[in-house]
Design a protein that fits this description.
Layout: H1 2-8, E1 17-19, H2 63-69, E2 78-85, E3 92-98, E4 110-114, E5 117-119, H3 122-135, E6 147-149, E7 155-160, E8 190-193, E9 208-211, H4 219-232, H5 238-248, E10 258-263, E11 270-275, E12 278-282, H6 288-304, E13 308-311, E14 353-355, E15 362-368, H7 383-400, E16 423-424
Parallel strand pairs: 5-15
Antiparallel strand pairs: 1-8, 2-3, 3-4, 4-16, 6-11, 7-10, 7-13, 8-9, 9-10, 11-12, 14-15
Helix pairs in contact: 4-5
């Protein structure tokens, strides 16, 4: 990435090509800012498969750690079934099951009682909980629940067989530096932001492209996918292609291949609904225009690298029948519990309060604060936007409850009294 930035300096590309502000720890300190042991990134490139080093700044390294220090109780391996209001004391009842070691649900229900419940299980998780609560008659909510799902205009591309090495495949997290002197580094280190091109692309039509790195555990299927599309999409007799694939698969080198990640804007016309296994998605969105723009950008990037652009590598037109006709993939879904002014427009208001199903009336003490409240695609990685929405909602919640001025300083001293949680079988 440094090489690319040096080449683009003082050119038109200088304004649209920049280093990505990655949320990764590179400091060699024993403890991070909330007192958690967090080693620095070793550049293994397995970010997309989950950071086994511990350098990635996921919520367990900051928000959850700080909450634990302040006395919160954190329960893992639980599955919330429904949320309902107690007819006796008016408290919220969060009904859940514990998951066993093999991720099967314990048939016994347990319950947490609370005056305030904040649902933050993500686009699919939060929507599923509220949908099930409504279906079971436990909660009256807007008819908009499940609607407004967006794939965020996400798309994958590949610059295949470049004239230069890409070094874009993960290695084992505990690799020996004697054997690997130049590891791939984190996923998404550079950005080409075409929203910044004056007079050519607007907020709605602009696209963003960045680099990707498959995790080490994905190398074999990654190779197979690349060769499958390269062979199956080529000219010639289809009957010979599987034999050709088998003969050449072991020879495929990914050293000169660079995965490309793109984001644009798409219609937010998808709908999440319940089925017997959880949730499914009906996708009505039409992202053809923005997909075309991204494909054009992928081709330009591949040409500059001396390679060949493989469009929609996971869902190529040649492979659509294998995927039952699905042609959209997303890494950053939004919607399902969309924000609106009234219950006719959304599931929650601007504070994240859940509408009770009538006008602007809300369920006191019930909130949703995550990507599910975002009512449209964002056209970029949504983590900062979602974080900003959630922190604003928490500030407004604090004001409404008269909790006084909030201290935003992280706490490193865990010597405080834990908060009791009323639990019932």
């Amino acid at each position: 990435m440094d090489s690319v930035l040096r080449r683009t300096k003082n050119t038109q590309l200088d304004k649209i090509c920049y280093k990505a502000p990655v949320f990764i720890n590179f400091d060699n300190k024993s403890l991070n800012h909330v007192g958690v042991q967090q080693p620095p990134c070793n550049g293994c490139g397995n970010c997309i498969g989950g950071c086994n080093v511990g350098a990635k700044n996921t919520v367990n390294m900051n928000y959850l750690a700080d909450a634990k220090t302040r006395g919160a109780h954190i329960f893992t391996k639980t599955k919330v079934e429904i949320i309902r209001k107690s007819p006796v004391d008016g408290k919220w009842q969060v009904v859940y099951r514990r998951l066993t070691s093999d991720d099967q649900s314990d048939p016994r229900h347990q319950m947490v009682l609370a005056d305030i419940v904040i649902v933050a299980a993500g686009t699919l998780g939060s929507t599923e909980i509220l949908l099930r609560s409504k279906e079971k008659g436990a909660l009256s909510i807007s008819r908009e629940i499940g609607r407004g799902f967006s794939a965020n205009g996400d798309q994958l591309g590949v610059s295949y067989d470049n004239s230069c090495k890409a070094n874009a495949v993960g290695v084992k997290s505990d690799y020996d530096s004697k054997d690997i002197s130049n590891p791939p580094g984190p996923t998404v280190t550079g950005v080409i932001d075409l929203r910044k091109v004056p007079g050519q692309m607007s907020y709605k039509t602009g696209v963003i492209m960045s680099d990707g790195t498959p995790a080490v555990g994905h190398v074999t299927p990654y190779k197979a996918l690349l060769q499958l599309i390269s062979v199956y999409g080529s000219d010639g007799d289809d009957s010979d292609k599987w034999e050709q694939l088998g003969m050449t698969l072991k020879k495929v080198s990914v050293e000169n291949t660079l995965p490309l990640l793109g984001s644009a804007h798409c219609d937010s016309n998808g709908e999440i609904y319940l089925d017997q296994n959880g949730v499914e998605i009906k996708w009505k969105g039409n992202d053809a225009k923005n997909a075309k723009r991204l494909n054009q950008v992928f081709k330009i990037a591949a040409k500059a690298l001396g390679g060949k652009a493989l469009e929609k590598p996971l869902l190529s037109d040649k492979l659509v029948p294998w995927f039952n006709g699905r042609n959209t993939i997303t890494l950053n879904p939004t919607g399902g519990c969309c924000m609106g002014n009234t219950c006719d427009e959304g599931v929650v208001n601007h504070k994240g309060q859940v509408f009770s199903g009538s006008g602007r009336d809300v369920h006191k003490g019930l909130y949703v604060m995550d990507s599910s409240v975002v009512p449209s695609s964002l056209g970029t990685q949504p983590s900062l936007t979602v974080c900003g929405i959630a922190e604003r909602a928490m500030r407004l919640l604090s004001q409404d409850c008269n909790w006084g001025k909030q201290n935003y300083e992280f706490v490193k001293d865990p010597s405080n009294i834990a908060i009791d949680i009323d639990m019932q079988d």
